[in-house]
Design a protein that fits this description.
Layout lengths: L2 E4 L4 E4 L4 E10 L1 H10 L6 E8 L10 E6 L9 E2 L5 E2 L1 E9 L6 E8 L1
Antiparallel strand pairs: 1-2, 3-4, 3-8, 5-9, 6-7, 8-9
Length: 112
């Protein structure tokens, strides 16, 4: 079973659940990344930390800029956005699994 890990207290969210976080920080633990680079094996060392919210209020679509967060320990030491620029935080994050590929993804939203 695939899952998403929410860093705050290491909560693992089953793959069929989609979650929203607010006031999000994207964390990469340097020692964990170094281990991946050294051993070439996956380990949990990067996560999104924020306040888990059941429902988000309705926002004016023009008041937020959407983006994506991604992380690849072989390419960068931080999470990056769709333009491969470092990403350290966002106002809101939507965490889910792609229905076609089963891979996790994070959509980010920041106030304009």
């Amino acid at each position: 079973m695939r899952s998403l890990t929410v860093g705050n207290l290491g909560v693992v969210i089953p793959d069929y659940i989609r979650k929203h976080l607010k006031d999000v920080t994207y964390v990469v633990q340097p020692a964990g990344r170094a281990r991946v680079l050294r051993e070439g094996k996956k380990n949990v060392h990067a996560f999104a930390r924020g306040e888990l919210v059941e429902k988000l209020p309705v926002y004016d679509a023009g008041s937020y800029v959407a983006n994506f967060a991604k992380y690849n320990p072989y390419k960068a030491a931080t999470f990056v956005d769709k333009d491969d620029e470092p990403l350290y935080n966002s106002d809101i994050a939507y965490l889910a699994l792609d229905s076609d590929t089963g891979k996790p993804f994070i959509s980010t939203f920041n106030a304009t």
